[in-house]
């Protein structure tokens, strides 16, 4: 274990309100997107599919050992002690707040994006209609 791994750790913020508890974390979750009308839609979708693959995430983690893979088939045997702590910390959370709730209007984050992410997790095969729904709702919210 390196000196850095001994000096850095992950921990929950102490409980402030017992109605909420202390089992939620805020963690950055990076994502890739494509333009609404890319010149090569099939190629863009293939690229996005590849970026989410275990192979691509293995390459990403090897290039930046401060991150962990999200693909459950990605290799973890080479993780540092700190990466293993990160995996354990994220896995133990009952809820994860994403930074988007700080980066956009609350009405868009809570009524459009959070339900869209939940829908995607439940049905990742219907991305096109989900994106169309997000875009439609975005137009409605941001044009008012």
Explain this structure.
With 144 residues, this protein is mainly alpha-helical. It folds into 2 domains: 1-97, no CATH class; 98-144, no CATH class. The protein contains 7 helices and 2 strands, in the order H-E-H-H-H-E-H-H-H. It has helices at 3-7, 41-51, 54-63, 81-92, 100-103, 106-122, 127-142; strands spanning 24-26, 95-97. It has a two-stranded parallel ribbon with strand order 1-2. Helix 6 (106-122) runs antiparallel to helix 7. The relative contact order is 0.12. The mean pLDDT is 86.
The end-to-end distance, rounded to whole angstroms, is 54 Å
Topology order in helix (H) and strand (E) letters? HEHHHEHHH
Spans of at least 5 consecutive residues whose pLDDT stays below 50 are none
Helical content class: 40-55%
Give me the number of helical elements.
Answer: 7
How many strands? Answer: 2
**Strand-pairing-aware structural class:** mainly alpha
**Cα gyration radius (Å):** 18 Å
In short:
Helix content is about 50%, strand content about 5%. The chain is built from seven helices and two strands, in the order αβαααβααα.
Summarize the SSE layout with pairings.
Blueprint (H helix, E strand, L loop, with lengths): L2 H5 L16 E3 L14 H11 L2 H10 L17 H12 L2 E3 L2 H4 L2 H17 L4 H16 L2
Helix pairs in contact: 6-7
